[in-house]
Amino acid sequence: MTKRVLIAEDEESIVASLQFLMRQCGFETRVARNGYEAIASLADFRPDLVLLDVMLPGRSGLEVCRFIRGESGLGGVRILMLTAKGGSADESKSREAGVDDYLSKPFATRELVARARALLGVACR
After folding, report:
1. pLDDT tens digits, one per residue of 2-11
2. Could you give the CA distance from residue 125 to residue 122 in angstroms, rounded to a whole number?
3. What's this model's pTM, rounded to 2 decimal places?
C-alpha cells in the first residue's frame, strides 16, 4: 500500500522540493498551505506522515500537531516538524506538542528523506 504524506508548508519553493522528494520515494502527496487546510486534509486524505512547518498561516504547526494528537482516529499519523527556528526551546515545545521528529531549515534533502523513511518504516524505491 502506498504511504501518504501531507506537506503542510507555505513556501512554494520548499513545497516543490518536498513534493519531488516524497514522490521520488513513491509516496502519494497532498499539500496544505496553511494550518486550516492541513486540519481539513486529515479527514479525507488520511496521511501516514505529516511534514509540518511550525510557522503556518492560520493555525500554527504546533496547533496542528496538538489537533492530530488529540484525535483518537489519527493516532498512527507520524509528524516531522520542519522549522526555521532552530533553538532548543522551540524543539522542546514541538516535542511537548507530540512531534515524532524535528528538523531545522535549511535541511539536507538526504536527511529529510532518511527521517521520513524511518518514521514510515519503509525504504525509498
Report:
1. 999 999 999 9
2. 9
3. 0.93
Q: Residue 56: inside a domain, yes or no?
A: yes
CB 68 within 8 A of CB 74: yes
The residues pairing with 50 across neighbouring beta strands, listed in sequence order, are 6, 79
CATH number, domain containing residue 104: 3.40.50.2300
Whether 3 contacts 48, CB under 8 Å: yes
Domain membership of residue 125 (yes or no) is: no
Q: Quick one: three-class SS letters along 51-107?
A: EEECCCCCCCHHHHHHHHHHCHHHCCCEEEEEECCCCHHHHHHHHHHCCCEEEECCC
Cell output for 21: 522528494
Residue 104 lies in a domain: yes
Q: Is residue 12 part of a domain?
A: yes
DSSP 7: E
Identify how many contiguous H helices and E strands the chain contains and give both numbers.
5, 5
